[in-house]
Amino acid sequence: MTHPKHKEHDFSLKLRQASVIEGFADYVRWQRSLRNDRPDASVPDMAPVSINLDLTTACNFSCPHCVDSGIINSGRQLDLEQVKKSLDTLKAHGLLSVILLGGGEPTLYRGFGEVVRYSKEIGLQVGIVTNGSKLQRVTDVAHLLGKHDWLRLSLDAAIQETFDKLHRPKTGVQLNDILENAREIKSQNPDLSLGYSFVIMWEGLEMNGVPIAPNIDEMQKAAGLAARYGFDYISFKPCLIRLPDLHKETLLDSVDRQKQEEIINEVKKRIDETKDAAGDRIKILESVNLIAMIHHRVHELKKQPKTCHMHIFNSVLAPDGIFHCPAFRGVESAKIAEADGYAGEENFQKTLENLRRSIDCFDAQKECDRIACFYNDVNWWIENFITSETPVASLETAEDDNFFF
């Protein structure tokens, strides 16, 4: 059973955009060739449509719910010239967007502003996810960003006490200061999409045995703050836990059915109350896995096709290497190259061959059976399209808009 998606999360629509559809068609033809006893068929010579670019592992917060806590503050960062060379190579092969986030706080990277400038100079859409502690560095480049670019602040709270408990900033960062700075950026560049990110924590959540402070009763107030400070939207998502034994992100894992029902009912109630109170003052976005959670579909998101087709359309470039999935950031089984794997044509071609082997060998049915996969619906859509008799040419082309995955 499917449920309505926000346009931002309709990945099958994104794959049919005018600038993407030929690459998608080439991938379908390749997969069909492989399945028709042509193992020598060449993987399409294409870059990911979108990459998560993790500039540094450094972070000035110590969030107990951070799924990347095992890899942050390792002292590693990407080389700026290597980043530029990688972006050049990827752009030449079809890269359309880059998201600066993950594995650390991107604004702590010394060359943060230059990466943003260069990404825009070569025509990429840019998304920035930040904890908000160094927003001046975003302010310095905000004028370069346009209507297809966005800035999202990971706040997860509506009051300072909860903000401190959930983020444990190493300096005296004030939530109100972050909101004021965000409002200033929006006033300087109204075209930039500004988002307030809120990961929902409920009673009983723990990460590595450490209790996580609940914030579920602050959802409505956070939406009010988002509206007051000029945000375009507030996005809600459920808290994921990274399994320490398997290094995988999961949702509602090892939670008995009665407790699941209690959690789901409470979350749904709070979402409904927040929407009613917000009215049309602020756009409220729900993540793919939150929608699945509310509609009792989490178990469906954990059932994957054998082939993870999103391998080829999205990847993570991080100081520790290139990974085929954000949920497996830093996990060796999902690593397809070292951090220089996109830096230059020769390296790119080697990484493409590694990607082919990964697509062939990585069994998503097994490896992702506890992950509430963000790409579950689109992976199944691609799988069903490949196995159907539907001609690739019959796909209806969509207008270019949002290239973020």
From TrEMBL:
<protein>
    <submittedName>
        <fullName>MoaA/NifB/PqqE/SkfB family radical SAM enzyme</fullName>
    </submittedName>
</protein>
<dbReference type="GO" id="GO:0051536">
    <property type="term" value="F:iron-sulfur cluster binding"/>
</dbReference>
<keyword id="KW-0408">Iron</keyword>
<keyword id="KW-0949">S-adenosyl-L-methionine</keyword>
<dbReference type="Pfam" id="PF04055">
    <property type="entry name" value="Radical_SAM"/>
</dbReference>
<feature type="domain" description="Radical SAM core">
    <location>
        <begin position="45"/>
        <end position="270"/>
    </location>
</feature>
<dbReference type="GO" id="GO:0046872">
    <property type="term" value="F:metal ion binding"/>
</dbReference>
<keyword id="KW-0411">Iron-sulfur</keyword>
<dbReference type="GO" id="GO:0003824">
    <property type="term" value="F:catalytic activity"/>
</dbReference>
<dbReference type="InterPro" id="IPR007197">
    <property type="entry name" value="rSAM"/>
</dbReference>
<dbReference type="InterPro" id="IPR013785">
    <property type="entry name" value="Aldolase_TIM"/>
</dbReference>
<dbReference type="InterPro" id="IPR050377">
    <property type="entry name" value="Radical_SAM_PqqE_MftC-like"/>
</dbReference>
<keyword id="KW-0479">Metal-binding</keyword>
<dbReference type="InterPro" id="IPR058240">
    <property type="entry name" value="rSAM_sf"/>
</dbReference>
